[in-house]
Amino acid sequence: MLEALERFSIESPTAFQKKSIPIIKSGANVFCTAPKDSGKTTALILTTLHKLKCEALGNAPRALVIAENKSKVLELYDAFFNYAKYSSLRIYASYEELHIDVQKSEIYMGIDILITIPKTLQKLFLNNGVSISELKICSIEDADFLRHKSEYTALTTTAESIRKCQYVMYSENLHPKLKRLKEFFMEGARYVKIEAKE
Hints:
The protein is α/β, with parallel strands linked by helices. It is built from 8 helices and 7 strands; from the N terminus they run ααβαβαβαβαβαβαβ. The protein has helices spanning 2-7, 15-25, 40-51, 70-84, 100-108, 118-126, 149-159, 176-179, and strands at 30-33, 63-66, 91-93, 113-116, 137-140, 166-171, 190-193.
């Protein structure tokens, strides 16, 4: 990880990263709210790599990253790949346009980080295409999109089957609908909020 930070010339954390990373590393569920360009995506990647100790293990995904759509999934895949390319971690991008049977067979080969969208995750789960028994952390990138009913329902339904996992939600604003996720899987969540001026 230090090598990756050096490669990207990251010398010091942003105000958001300074405040959020220690809380995320503690293992608590966290609602992270900060303006655009506060370093949310970098925090998501670094805390995920830290949680997985930058090494491949087993076959079932240990980290789940939820994004809004295919282009966001692929952006995150590229970002993760750039940080983890000298590690043994296996990262997989999953989205609606990719046939579910192809995804099932590729995931079966063994992955550590699954980056997907709520509806595809639900479809994989219902088709026994992914095991969620080893999940350690689930991060939701730019969670504002969960205000759409279908995405919200797909995520909450799947989360009911995940026994024990840390959830970290990143958004620019904490919409009342996102706050209600405490009733589903964000129990005891802590809050990290950075204002634009910080």
